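User: C-alpha cells for this one?
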Amino acid sequence: MRRPPRLASVLVPLALTAGIVLSTPVSGHAASGYAATPPGPGFPPRYTAPYIETWQPGKSLTEAQRATGLKYFTLAFVISDGGCNGALDGTTAVTDEGWQSAVNRLRAGGGDVIASFGGGAGTELALVCESVDSLKAAYRRVIDALNLTRVDFDIEGAAVSDSASVERRNRALAELQREYAARGRTLNVHYTLPVNPDGLSPESVLLLQNAKKLGVTISVVNIMTMDYGPDLNMGRMAISAADGLLKQMAKIWPEKSTTELWGMQGNTPMVGVNDATNEIFSTEDARMLARFANDKGIQLLAFWSVGRDQACLTEAELPANTCSGTSQQPADFAHLLSRPRLRPAPDWRPPHCIGLSSSHTACAGLLPPPVGGGMVASPGQDGRALWGGRCGSGWNRSAWSQPMVWCRGPVGR
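Assistant:
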C-alpha cells in the first residue's frame, strides 16, 4: 500500500468532514518520556482495523475513532528512519507524545492498535538491519514502546522476493515470539501481502512457508485486494482472491481445518479509485465483501485508508491520498466493513436511527448530529448477538461480536 507524501497541503482527513479540525502533521523525531498503557482486553475473533496514516499527527487516531465508531486501527507505517531503527512514517519516534496519548485514549475505550511495518514506500527494517539480533532489537523497541500485542508486516514489491530479508525477518519474529511467551505475553504476527484474483504469487507463498519452517506462528494472512491491473469487479475479485488464498493456505498448514484457515485470513481493499485508476472499489463492493467475510468467518477486515474514506470535495487527481474518488458519505467504508454492522439486511435499521457505533460517545461522530443512543446488542452464547431495539422496536439476530449502540436521529430519518 502506498505511503502518501507528508504535506500539510494535502491533509484533508476524514475527520474534517465531520466538523473536526486537524493540525498540520508532526515532523521530526518527537521523542518524549511517554509510554503506552498496557493493551486492553484484546482483539475479538472478528474485527475491523483499517490503516491510518502516521504522517498525520497522533490526534488523527482519536478523531478517526470518533468519526467511524471503530475500536481498532492499523498504524501505517513503521519504517526505517535511515538506519536500523523504526519510526512512524520514518520520521516520528514511536514514543511521540501525540501518538502515545492517542493510543492510550483508544485503549481506555476498549480499543487497540496494530503496528504495520513496511508498506509500498519507505524501507522495512529487515532490509536495513544486517543481523537477526539487530533486527530483533529494532522490532522490540517498537513493540515495547507501544505495548503491542499485534504486529503487521506489509511486504510488497521487491521485498517479497528478497530471500535474505525474508529469512532475517522470520528468524527475528520466531525468536521474539518465544521470548515474549517466556514472559507471559503473546505476540501475534500478521503478514499483509499483494495478491492476484487467484491468490498469492509464488514468492509470497515461499515467504509464508519460510515463516512456518522457522517457527513463526502467523495469526493472520492479510491480502491486499487491489491494483490488479485489468478492469474488474473489485468486490468479486476480493472474494476470488480469498478463495485462492484458502487453497494455498491449506497446503502450507494442512493440519488446520477449513474453518481455522478462514479464521486466519484478512482482506484489505483500497477503497474508491485504485492506483490502477480503472479499478474502483465501491460501497456496493464493500457490502459484498462484508457479507462474504461474515459468512466465512474471516478474522480481519481492513481497508486503505482511513484518510481516504470520504468523497472528494473538489476535483482531484486520482487516486488521491485524502479522498476515495467515488460517491460516498463520510466514513461509509468504515461503517460498511465494520464487523458489528454485519447483518442479514444491509439496508435495514431501526426507525429514527442514523447509524451504529461502538459507544454512546461515538454517536457524536455521525452526521447529522444525533440526539443520543441506546444499547441494542450483546453477544449470545453462540457468538451471535441478541438484539432488542431501543431506537425502534422488535428484535433480531445477527453477527455482532460486542455490545453496540444505535445512534438516534431526528424523527423521520
